[in-house]
Specification:
By secondary structure, the protein is α+β, with helices and mostly antiparallel strands. It contains 21 helices and 15 strands.
């Protein structure tokens, strides 16, 4: 990275009175360290004043640096807060890092710069114990309110066996129940209004319209939604913490369970990031196989969304038809991968095995099968007058609002912006394929549906091109860090067999550094930010999921509507709660 040019030079010129140091990274993303007291000024400059600004807060997270051994020339810190910003005009990212000292440090909040910083800062406090001064409501977001400790700190146990036995005496159960009570005053809500039919209502956490454990506390005036609070964390399983105790290889199956409808799409973001760290270039055959399987899972995920969205609005038949179409995809996935919903099939440097005999006929049959089914669903759902009345003009947001809240994927494209990482930052060979980026204009529930449905047709185009143009060659790279290595490399002599054994059992030793690769996943931009200290396990695994920021915007776009409209809004967003909570 040339640290004397571009945005780094622009920052150094604008803030010449402070020390702004740059850091080399494996992915080449401009990365700079700034003093904590100047962080808000730097962030505001990048959002609003810089030439071709960075309007989106793409991610915000922390790192516990206290036991790291590969510090190099980076600033001395106990903790690091990292802001990942995105510029659409530059088609470029920047990372802003703040070094913090002390056991429980603090930093000024960025909520007044980006509203989406609200949940991210709560997560950093929840996981690391880092406070954000000026945050409107800094409290637990993923962990239970009574949880002791901050799980992503290095001293926090990673396994249940390290935490002692679980018991719940009566007084503890009472305390847990008390902690779950919603207190409107804590959130700045009024508890009484004159001349209004005013009440609070819990929607969930057990409700069919929330598609999982999600609690929405509604402030109602009659049936109109005045305000709402989203309560998440019920599906939190410590996915990022698990990444710190798994090898680079054995963490792959855990990724399938993040967006559990996305299958190998989850593997792809992870292995691309590891390969960026390791400097692995995969063969063309691997790239095309990955694209084909990822697009199958895009269609499978969208079919689940399509059927359940229609069901949420009262149409019962479509979900049965669409789940049947999804099962046909899983038949192909099973023939290729051996598994169906969570095949964990991608590998560092390749895929698990080569395509089986007859795979092309299975793919060809499906590519010709689905288009007439989608045309029938258009008549059944999208042209239905009731469906239109329930979705058009409901839950809309503007393009500027979408960017401010960190919306990506179909939600962003429904506002008219053709931002798709497969086109803007082609990975895995997408630049060799012909496909269009569907967009819409109104940013409402109906337009989000239009975009996803057309995406399925574009995915079919991609799959057909993969089928007709599948390259010959190996299904794994011959790079030394490919895991597991090609079989021919493992049976040569005892040394290569030992290397194979250690690579699978202990995991490959990934060079020290950091990298992230983002992909256009089923629900938006998904990425893994990985930090290696040169060992067989990641030092830090950060999973940037699209569902987390998308759900945060719900109170904003549901205000003034009614409860049935809220269910339409929730359905149109297409979130997965495991993707939210990780």
């Amino acid at each position: 990275m040339n640290t004397e040019s571009g945005i780094v030079q622009e920052l150094q010129n604008r803030f010449s009175e402070i020390s702004i140091t740059s850091q080399e990274t494996r992915d080449g993303v401009p990365t700079v360290w700034v003093p904590g007291e100047k962080a808000p000024d730097v962030l505001r400059f990048l959002k609003t004043e810089a030439d071709k600004p960075y309007p989106m807060l793409y991610d915000l997270t922390g790192i516990d640096e206290r036991v790291r051994t590969d510090r190099g020339d980076r600033p001395d810190s106990d903790f690091t807060v990292l802001y990942h910003l995105l510029s659409f005009q530059r088609n470029e990212d920047i990372r802003i890092k703040v070094a913090l000292k002390g056991d429980f440090p603090s930093l000024d909040s960025a909520v007044d710069i980006w509203p989406s910083a609200n949940w991210y800062e709560r997560e950093v406090w929840d996981m690391f114990g880092i406070s954000f001064e000026g945050h409107p409501h800094l409290r637990r977001i993923l962990m239970p309110p009574t949880w002791q400790g901050h799980p992503l700190r290095k001293e926090h146990p990673a396994r249940a066996t390290e935490m002692g036995s679980f018991s719940l005496p009566d007084e503890k159960e009472e305390a847990e129940q008390e902690a779950l009570q919603f207190r409107p005053d804590d959130w700045g809500m009024k508890t009484h209004r004159e001349d209004s039919d005013f009440l609070f209502l819990n929607l969930g956490p057990q409700h069919p319209g929330t598609h999982g454990l999600l609690r929405v506390i509604l402030e109602l005036d009659g049936e109109e939604i005045v305000d709402s609070v989203i309560d998440i964390g019920y599906h939190h399983r410590g996915a990022e913490k698990m990444g710190e105790r798994q090898s680079w290889h054995t963490f792959i199956p855990y990724t399938d369970r993040v967006d559990y409808l996305g299958g190998v799409m989850n593997n792809l973001a992870y292995v691309l990031s590891v390969e960026k760290l390791a400097g692995i270039e995969v063969p063309d055959r691997v790239k095309v196989i990955r694209i084909m399987m990822a697009e199958f899972f895009r269609i499978a995920s969208h079919l689940v969304w399509y059927g359940t969205f229609a069901q949420d609005l009262g149409a019962m038949s479509p979900v049965f038809y669409m789940f049947s179409d999804r099962e046909r995809i899983f038949d192909i996935v099973e023939a290729v991968c051996g598994g169906r919903m969570h095949p964990s099939w991608f590998r560092i440097g390749g895929v698990s095995q080569d395509l089986p005999n007859g795979w092309d006929m299975l793919v060809k049959n499906y590519v010709s099968y689905l288009p007439p089914r989608l045309a029938e669903y258009d008549k059944m759902v999208m042209q239905n007058s009731i469906f239109k009345a329930r979705t058009q003009g409901i839950g809309s947001f503007t393009l500027d609002e979408a960017i401010d809240w960190g919306v990506t994927g179909p939600g962003l494209r429904a506002c008219g912006m053709d931002w798709d990482l497969r086109k803007k930052r082609p990975y895995s060979g997408y630049d060799q394929f012909e496909f269009d980026i569907p967009t819409a204009t109104h940013g409402d529930c109906y337009d989000r549906a239009i975009v996803r449905i057309e995406e399925m047709r574009q995915s079919l185009r991609l799959i057909e091109q993969c089928m007709k143009n599948m390259p010959d060659g190996p299904y794994k790279s011959d790079h030394v860090l490919t895991t597991p290595p090609l079989k021919a490399h493992t049976m040569h002599d005892i040394e290569t067999l030992i290397t194979h054994f250690l690579g699978v059992s202990w995991g490959p030793v990934i060079p020290s550094g950091e990298a992230s690769v983002a992909i256009e996943a089923t629900k938006g931009n998904n990425g893994y930010y990985l930090v290696s200290d040169g060992s067989t396990m990641p030092y830090r695994v950060r999973i940037r999921t699209p569902s987390f920021p998308h759900l945060q915007i719900v109170p904003r776009i549901s205000r003034g509507f009614m409860i049935p409209d809220l269910l339409a809004i929730l359905g149109s967003i297409d979130y997965v709660l495991a993707d939210v909570d990780r």
